[in-house]
Amino acid sequence: MRRSVGVVHGLVERIHPFDAVEAQHREAALRWLESTDDVFRRVKPATPDRHLVSYVVLADSASRSTLLVDHVNAGLWLPPGGHVEPDEHPGETARREAEEELGIDLALPERRAEQIPPSFVTVTRTVGQDHGHVDVSLWFLFDVRQDTPITPDRTEFREVRWWTPAEVRATPADRFDPHYQRFLAKTGF
What we know:
Layout: H1 3-13, H2 20-35, E1 50-60, E2 65-71, E3 77-78, E4 81-83, H3 90-102, E5 120-125, E6 134-143, E7 157-163, H4 165-170, H5 180-187
Parallel strand pairs: 1-6
Antiparallel strand pairs: 1-2, 1-4, 2-3, 2-7, 5-6
């Protein structure tokens, strides 16, 4: 197994599933990682047709809110994030994507991103303009104050806003990543 794929396998192995769905996704992700080293997107939008993604979930524990983006391609409210580059640590992807997409420096000491474990794992067929491929997503949770200045990438997002749990519950579930409400339940938000 390619070293970087082994690192991802170890991260997924250490995730404790919240429910039966996450347990299924965890097992599917582990089987996939054991079956191939071709897990990083090589060609946009979807080669290979199953590849790694890191979500960076920014949460303000004081206000109990999370930052979501209205993603242009997906047409859904999602956590920011993106594709894991070849041999990149998924924690580093989350840090990099926060900087590229939101202008937020998570101020992690060198190699600290590699020490942050993902909180959640999902296997999802994409929707929107890039539908037809499967994202194996590792969800990384970072505590960030709601008043942190952001500079969103307007080419990727129509809107960026903080959501409280009550606002998420009051909005039709099909407006979000299909696993977002389960992620909130798992993490206590």
